[in-house]
From TrEMBL:
<feature type="domain" description="4Fe-4S Mo/W bis-MGD-type">
    <location>
        <begin position="221"/>
        <end position="277"/>
    </location>
</feature>
<dbReference type="Pfam" id="PF13510">
    <property type="entry name" value="Fer2_4"/>
</dbReference>
<dbReference type="InterPro" id="IPR050123">
    <property type="entry name" value="Prok_molybdopt-oxidoreductase"/>
</dbReference>
<keyword id="KW-0411">Iron-sulfur</keyword>
<dbReference type="GO" id="GO:0008137">
    <property type="term" value="F:NADH dehydrogenase (ubiquinone) activity"/>
</dbReference>
<dbReference type="GO" id="GO:0048038">
    <property type="term" value="F:quinone binding"/>
</dbReference>
<dbReference type="InterPro" id="IPR019574">
    <property type="entry name" value="NADH_UbQ_OxRdtase_Gsu_4Fe4S-bd"/>
</dbReference>
<dbReference type="InterPro" id="IPR054351">
    <property type="entry name" value="NADH_UbQ_OxRdtase_ferredoxin"/>
</dbReference>
<dbReference type="GO" id="GO:0003954">
    <property type="term" value="F:NADH dehydrogenase activity"/>
</dbReference>
<keyword id="KW-1278">Translocase</keyword>
<dbReference type="InterPro" id="IPR006655">
    <property type="entry name" value="Mopterin_OxRdtase_prok_CS"/>
</dbReference>
<dbReference type="InterPro" id="IPR006657">
    <property type="entry name" value="MoPterin_dinucl-bd_dom"/>
</dbReference>
<feature type="domain" description="4Fe-4S His(Cys)3-ligated-type">
    <location>
        <begin position="83"/>
        <end position="122"/>
    </location>
</feature>
<dbReference type="GO" id="GO:0043546">
    <property type="term" value="F:molybdopterin cofactor binding"/>
</dbReference>
<keyword id="KW-0472">Membrane</keyword>
<dbReference type="GO" id="GO:0051539">
    <property type="term" value="F:4 iron, 4 sulfur cluster binding"/>
</dbReference>
<dbReference type="Pfam" id="PF01568">
    <property type="entry name" value="Molydop_binding"/>
</dbReference>
Length: 769
């Protein structure tokens, strides 16, 4: 703490601040390229030159790099001094020697830091008349476009990609004037955070390949503060739209959550809203109709069904829509649920109850400060930015332990990895509990790993336990809570929940409601079902049962913005606005209610889900209270969070943990059967799986088996095997993978749906000889 002077203005600084950081915090502009608040200083670009007066009046002032010089009490700095200005001008002139003068056609134009700095500091004309150095560009996959000639050698890309995100397939090559930033060979970037290169590069070397397909000048984009709809982290974003279509998504700074970055699912998943199959016209019995006609038909069916109407909300729909659907169902005395799989409903409810009772989940900024962490499941696929936060903790020296059943990117950084079949996860958590509580030596085949994890957690000052609720059962979630309790009050607990609004939706979900709705349909007690933003007929484990139950319904009414299996089977389809076309609120994994604003309207606007529900109520001659009144009733003291603000905690009544830690310890083996582990990847959520660029990167469908397990069964790599599940049979090649547990096969979400099984279920595997 102290003060210094910059061009006569007294400004404060914090301990260890450099001059540039302190100046920027005080809104004083010093030109710079290579410094980045997340990456620190490097001194590569030499643009941040300032003049610093010496304490000794006999000595001349000297020019220094402001990003490399610590701020000191009483320091006198000049940004405007002629010597400093001249250095900056020469730096720009040198950089522009090789830089193409293609600003009018460059896709970075309008948000290029080099363009801005050249106008601000550089000479107005180029003196150099020789040949420019040129490079060959690389194909880096469908997400990031490469134009290497624009590089100014600031090293921000590699510092982000390698040092910050811990990726290993992009780096700097060659020497001197020939330094090249790219991959060793052409090919898609493999980091789930690669898209951040687009924002981190101060020029147009890395640009958004999806945005380029249907390019718009950035100054023509309509933007508004938004929240990512693709997972429960709730990263803050800034979508940009033009001519009634969504063109891109960028990061928006939130100091406690995503800060400067987002993951590639958040950046590129938006393509779902421009998918060619997106339903844009209402349909009744497969025939296109006007919205009003379809609405009237839906109201007629609901009226006929009366209290035999059911409703299914969704974890990917906002708080407002779910609350209004619940209110409509209450008015009709109908049944309401929000999940399509009862197991997922129970596990999510257990996780939310655990988060509430543990005093709240840590923010991403707090996760970065952990000195030890236990992760249960594949965090990268389910909450990518939580993974990036843990990578920062790891860089700071934290010890990571991973308990998992299938492929998991974070194992690369783990001090201890315990790979066990899905049904053994709970038992291992109980063993860990014993060890943490009593330092006992469990007699277990994984004794060493358990002892290592227990030691690492019990000796840590800031341990964090993170579970992926989609691949955990409720008792396993309870066992993780117990472990947190055993570690003491300094231990923090977080769960990656299944959906952007899973937390908020769960608070509206009556206990065991999914089962109740499904059984009621099967018993003929529900005739008309309203499904909003959900896909029960495409559910992995229960899709076949939902599809059979659907036959008992007289009317299936679907409100959605993607062409799911359920939307395609609808009797009445009411297309609704996608998230960037409307406002709403998502409650993230911390219980933080974050508002998102409508970014744009389509040329032919679609109603949002709340409007459709209100119109339905009107047709039914029912009076629904307005959204604020409904939410205030559900959450006393609720204030609608203003988009662009930090997002307050939802004032929610506490859920009770409905489960205990009774976990079967006997291993479940059936001859010829394997336990199934879901191998998800960051692009396969319900919405992003309609994003073409992400789909292009999806791993090829395969049966992942550990080499030892495969050897035991005589199964070879790439061999075709047949899998039989309750819903169907699939033939796929085997892929040997060291990250899969024994007795386990790891399968993609789409394969699980074809077979009709979920994570932890048993499956028959047959060799095709
Ligand atoms: S590619 Fe971009 S970020 Fe990387 S060194 Fe060049 S200018 Fe800097
Ligand atoms: S971590 Fe989740 S919320 Fe954040 S950008 Fe990625 S998908 Fe979106
Ligand atoms: S920002 Fe200081 S040398 Fe680049």
């Amino acid at each position: 703490m102290g003060t210094m002077r910059i061009d006569g203005h007294e400004i404060p600084f914090q301990e260890n601040d450099n001059i540039l950081k302190a100046a920027l915090a005080a809104n004083i502009e010093i030109p710079y390229f290579c410094y980045h608040a997340a990456l620190g200083s490097l001194g590569a670009c030499r643009l941040c030159a300032v003049e610093v007066a010496s304490v000794d009046p006999a000595q001349k002032p000297r020019v220094v790099m402001s990003c490399l010089e610590f701020a000191r009490d009483g320091l006198s700095v000049s940004v405007s001094a002629a010597a400093a200005r001249q250095v900056r001008q020469r730096v720009i002139e040198f950089l522009m020697i090789n830089h193409p003068h293609d600003c009018p056609v460059c896709d970075e134009g309008g948000e290029c830091h080099l363009q801005d700095m050249t106008v601000a500091c550089g000479p107005p004309y180029r003196r150099y008349r020789g040949r420019k150095r040129t490079f060959t560009n690389q194909y880096l996959g469908p997400l990031v476009h490469h134009e290497m000639n624009r590089c100014i050698t600031c090293y921000r890309c590699t510092r982000f990609y390698q040092d910050y995100a811990l990726g290993d397939d992009l780096g700097s090559m060659r020497l001197r004037n020939e330094v090249y930033f790219g991959r060793f060979q052409d090919g898609p970037l493999t980091s789930p955070f690669a898209g951040n290169l687009v924002e981190i590069c101060p020029t147009g070397v890395f640009t958004d390949a999806v945005f380029r397909q249907h390019f718009a000048r950035v100054w023509d984009l309509q933007t508004a503060p938004s929240i990512c709809p693709h997972c429960s982290v709730g990263c803050n974003t800034l979508p940009g739209a033009r001519d009634g279509t969504l063109r891109r998504v960028r990061n928006r700074f939130h100091p406690e959550l995503n800060r400067w970055f987002i993951c590639d699912r958040g950046r590129y998943g938006h393509q779902y809203s421009e998918h060619p199959d997106r339903p844009l016209t209402a349909q009744v019995a497969g025939v296109k109709m006007s919205y009003r006609e379809a609405l009237a038909a839906a109201a007629e069916q609901i009226k006929a069904a009366g209290d035999k109407t059911g409703g299914l909300g969704s974890t990917r729909e906002d708080l407002e829509s779910n609350a209004m659907l619940q209110t409509l169902l209450n008015k009709l005395s109908g049944r309401f649920a929000t999940f399509s799989d009862p197991q997922l409903e129970t596990a999510t409810a257990a996780a939310v109850a655990a988060l509430q009772s543990s005093g709240g989940a840590p923010s991403l900024a707090e996760i970065e400060q952990a000195d030890a962490a236990l992760v249960v499941g594949d965090l990268t696929a389910h909450a990518p930015m939580m993974d990036l936060a843990l990578r920062q903790a790891y860089r700071n020296g934290a010890k990571l332990a991973i308990l998992h059943s299938g492929p998991c990117l974070l194992t690369r950084f783990a001090a201890t990895t315990l790979t066990v079949a899905p049904h053994e996860i709970g038992a291992q958590l109980l063993h860990l509990n014993e060890q943490a509580a009593t330092a006992s030596n469990a007699s277990n085949q994984h004794k060493k790993e358990l002892a290592d994890i227990a030691t690492c957690l019990t000796t840590a000052q800031r341990p964090i336990l993170i579970g992926v609720s989609e691949t955990m059962s409720a008792p396993e979630i309870a066992a993780l809570v117990q472990l947190a309790t055993a570690l003491g009050s300094h231990a923090r607990l977080a769960y990656a929940l299944p959906g952007a609004n899973a937390y908020g939706t769960t608070l509206l979900t009556p206990t065991n409601s999914t089962n109740a709705v499904l059984e009621a349909i099967e018993l003929g007690q529900i005739q008309t079902l309203i499904v909003m933003g959900n896909d029960p007929l495409g559910d992995a484990r229960l899709g076949a049962r939902w599809r059979a139950a659907r036959q008992r319904l007289s009317t299936l009414i679907v409100l959605d913005c993607v062409a799911t299996t359920t939307a395609e089977a609808a009797d009445i389809l009411l297309p609704v606005a996608a998230w960037a076309e409307r406002g709403g609120t998502f409650v993230n994994y911390e219980g933080r209610a974050q508002g998102f604003a409508p970014v744009f309207q389509r040329a032919e606007p679609l109603p949002n889900t709340v409007e459709v529900l209100a119109d339905l109520a009107h047709c039914l001659e029912l009076t629904l209270p307005d959204v604020p009144a409904v939410l205030n009733n559900l959450f006393p003291g609720y204030q609608t969070p203003f988009p662009g603000t930090m997002g307050p905690s939802l004032p929610a009544p506490s859920l009770t943990m409905q489960t205990d830690t009774t976990i079967g310890t006997a291993s479940i083996t059936h001859p010829g059967h394997w336990q199934v582990a879901l191998t998800s990847w960051y692009g396969d959520d319900a919405l992003a799986s309609y994003a073409a660029a992400l789909v292009e990167l999806a791993p090829a469908a395969a049966v992942l088996i550990h080499p030892t397990a495969a050897f035991k069964e005589g199964i070879e790599d790439k061999e075709q095997v047949r899998l039989r599940g309750p819903a169907g049979t699939v033939v796929l090649p085997v892929q040997l993978n060291n990250d899969v547990a024994a007795d386990t096969i790891a399968l993609a979400r789409v394969t699980l749906a074809q077979l009709g099984v979920g994570h932890g279920d048993l499956l028959e595997l047959e060799r095709i000889l």
